[in-house]
Each structure stands twice: as C-alpha cells, then as structure tokens.
Amino acid sequence: MFAPKKTAMKILMVATEASPFVSVGGAAQVVNHLSKALELSGNEVAVFIPKFGFISEEKYQLTALYEGLKVPTGDEQNPYLMCNIKTAEFPSKVKAYFLENQEYYEKRANVYGYSDDPTRWALLSRGVLEFIRLKIFIPDIIHCNDWHTGLVCNYLKSDYANDPVLSKIAAIYTIHNLAFQGMFDHKHVSELDYDDGKSLVAPFFDNRLKTQNFMKRGILYSDVVSTVSKSYSKEILTPEFGEGLDKLLLELKGKIFGIVNGIDYEEMNPATDSLIEKNYDINSIGTREVNKKALQKEFDLPEDSKALLLGFVGRLDNMKGVDLLLNTMEYVLRDYPIQFVQIGGGDGGLVEMLHQLKNKYPKSVGIHPYPNFTLPRLVFAGADCVVYPSRFEPCGIVQIEAMRYGAVPIVRKVGGLSDTVVDFDSGTLEGTGFVFSHFDEYALYGQIVRAYENYRNKPLWLKLQKNAMKADFSWFYSAREYVKLYEKAKSIVGKQL
Ligand code: GLC
Question: Rounded to an integer, what distance in angstroms lies between the CA atom of residue 16 and that of residue 27?
Fold first, then answer.
C-alpha cells in the first residue's frame, strides 16, 4: 500500500511529545504515526524530542550518541547550556533523537506546567538546530509542532539565516491547537502589549522570553503552516476561532493548509486488540455485545442490552464542551433508557459536575475522572456511541478511533469533527454518525434522541455501524498530503537561496 516514491526526502520532526516515549495529548500520536507512514512511503524520517526523566532508558534501549552539545542561550553571563544527544528507535523503526539536559528535562516529573517552560522550549528549539549542525542527520525539512517548537522557525530565519547547512532547510509548522500560544496569553493583556514577532528571540533567561508569542513566531517564520484538519484551517481565519491571530492568519492565508489526522490501523484493530473482552471485525459486529456487557460490568451498571450506551473518552476540558454534555445528560437520563460512561481527567469543576450526575443517576452513569490507557479501548468496543459536542476541535482523534471499533460518533459540526464524521441519512443509508451545528442543549439532546431511535431499529443500526467501521482515515493518505506540502516548502526555500 505504501509505494515508495522516487523523490524521497529527509524529514526531522521536532516536538515535545511522541508516543510511545511521552504522550500527553493527541499530538504525540500524530508525531509517531505520521513519521511511520512517511517512512513507509520511502522517506527518511527522524524525530527529535526532549529526554524527560520518566522515559526509561532500559525499556526503550536508549544509547548515547553525542556528549557536550553546546546550545547558545543569548545570555552573556551564561552563554551556553550543555546537552547530550541520545538515540533509540520507535517500534516502527523510525529513529528517535533525544535532547538530554538534567535541569530542564531530566529532573522534571511532568512535561508541561513549569514557570520556565519558555526557556525549556527555547532550549529544545535551538538544541535541534545545533544538533543538525553536527551533521549526524541533515534533513531537507524540519517539521515543527505547536507553540513549543515555534522558535525553531524563528531561529532558523534569523540567528541561523546564513548558516551553510541550516539555511537550506525548509520549515513547516503544524498547529495542533491555536489556543495555546506560549506563556503569553492574549486574553490577559491589551493589544498594545502583543508581541509583534519581529524582534529577535529574547535570551533564554530573560523575562521578555515569557512575553514572546511562540505560536505567532512559528506561523510568521515557517515556510508553510498546516493545521490538523481542513475545516480548522479555515475556521482560524475568523475572530471566533482565531485566538487573536485571525488577522495575521488571514494575511498569510496563502501558506496555510489543512491536513486531517489519521489513526494507525494496525495498532487500533478490534480484531486483534488484547485490551478488549472479545475480538471482532466488521463481519462479526454482533460480538460487540460481549464487550458492551464487560463495559457495563466494569462501571457497575445494569447489563442491559436495550439501553443505548454513550461514552466520552478524553480530557475534561471546556474546549470539548463537557459542560454542555453533562447539562444535557441530566435531561437525557431522565427521559430515556440511556447509560453514560466517562474516562479522562482534567478540569476540577467538570469533575465535580460528573460526580453530581453520578449521584443523581447512579444506575445509569459510570465515571473514571482520571487518565487511563487501557479502558478507552473497552469503551470503543463496547459503547454504542461516543459523544463530542466540542466548542472547537482542531482535529480530534478519538471519534476516528471509535468509528474503527463500531462506536457511532455524535459530534458537533466543527473542525476535524466535521471533516471526519458524516451525518447519517436513514433514507440513503449513507453516513457514519450524528452531526449537529448549534452549541446548545436542545441541539445535542435532539441528536442523542435521534441516535436512540435509530439504535432501536437493529438493521439500520448495523448498517450505520458498518459505515463507521469502513471509514478509512489511514495515515497513508495524509502522509501523501504532507509530502506535497514538504515539496512546496522546499521550493520556497530553493527560490530564496
Ligand atoms: C490537539 C488538538 C486535537 C488534535 C490533536 C492532534 O490535541 O486539540 O484536536 O486532534 O492535537 O493533532
């Protein structure tokens, strides 16, 4: 399926996270699986991430590659930070390079959330460029991900603009979530204090670094910008979704593209998944019933096959519309034989709302308000539907994973949700889920009831499940689109030289 291309490229992906080594959000999966798909399409790909203390050197067989990499800080008193480079392989055999630094990565228990995060990510951004100068891996393309790596593009086009090796490299910058732009938060300062993005990057230990907008700089200085779905690439040009950068994005519209995320169809496979109760495929969907029972049992709910079982897997986040979902569930659970299970931690206020819902409907609601890496699979395999009424969603991966397992998504028509789920038409029997537009309880209530009524018609439901399972968001297609973007970025740099 992955026919090697003649014009193979060397790509260096740089990020703060990449599964399986470090995984906080969806971007970690994108970095891992996109790299694999690009490599299988005949390109040479490597990934560059920090070596956090919790990444086990034994488990992943890390080896030392280079000691004493001097990364310039821009600070006169303390001009360099010393780092090491370690290396290992992803399960896909893609090469991983790790930037090791005791103070900024090794000693930290978490990936994010420190007051010196701007320094930590400036170190990563400048560190990757210094690594390339070692000539161990010289890419044609450097692919940056989210605000943490926005400064790679900035350094590349300023401090390193005349470097004989680096000046030939094209930079592509992928926005996974425009809402996070750095320490800088446009909601809390007046427009006068916005970073215009034109000054040089502040030295690592200078407080000005915290007021520089890494996201904006990534957008400004990259050759090409991409977002993780087509719809989101258009939405961010409007004040509603633009997070204060819509005017700039509109100006730069010509270099902004959208490529939808995929999933790894080998890893996510109900026919082989060892984390679910009983394996099945599109020809044995009836077997899902065993998984539904197992899921109900897991959450101490009545093992009722007639109840429509809804699932929510993911961060408890305002962006995901969890408040709307829980408010709506109050009425849904009052009126219909419906059950609801949830997995994922996050916002304290939303956790509190979940507990209240569970107290009110103990026999219909199951909650697990903590991150969990195994239970989501049982939800995909056992729930009838998953529900994502997001305020905004750059792509969203869970609805694609759910479809692969035959759980029908109920989603709001926004961002990647609207690009990956097609509203079901019971006349033509086409479509993969239930899609609504307005962000309110009435719209969501209506869709859940619609799902319930369709669920009661078994042949219709089976058709819908099959449609969902057949939807193909293989990384192969998206990798092909990325290669086109890389070529575009390369030709832009070629013209500048
Ligand atoms: C971010 C976005 C999500 C996207 C993921 C991977 O977490 O919020 O929509 O799917 O990145 O690109």
Answer: 9
pLDDT tens column, 191-224 = 777 899 999 999 999 999 999 999 999 999 999 9
CA 177 to ligand 1 center in whole angstroms: 6
> 261: burial class by Cβ within 10 Å (0-12, 13-18, 19+)?
buried
Q: What is the pLDDT of residues 311-370, one digit of tens each?
A: 999 999 999 999 999 999 999 999 999 999 999 999 999 999 999 999 999 999 999 999
Residue 401 beta carbon below 6 angstroms from any ligand 1 atom = no
Q: Which residue has the tokens 């599109």?
A: 282
Q: Is the CB of 26 under 6 A from ligand 1?
A: yes
Return the residue whose CA atom lies nearest to atom 1 of ligand 1. Answer: 176
Q: Domain segments of the chain: what residues?
A: 10-262+476-496, 285-472
Distance (Å) from CA 155 to ligand 1 centroid: 25
Q: Do residues 72 and 83 lie in contact, with contact meaning Cβ atoms separated by under 8 Å? A: no
Tell me which CATH code domain 285-472 carries: 3.40.50.2000
Q: Is the CB of 177 under 6 A from ligand 1?
A: yes
d(CA 63, CA 457): 57
Task: Say if residue 2's pLDDT is above 60.
Answer: no
For 165, the token pair is 């090796």
Does residue 314's CB lie within 6 angstroms of at least one atom of ligand 1?
no
- When the candidates are 1.10.10.1020, 3.40.50.2000, 3.90.1150.10, 2.60.40.10, the CATH number that belongs to 10-262+476-496 is 3.40.50.2000
Q: Do domains 10-262+476-496 and 285-472 have the same CATH topology?
A: yes
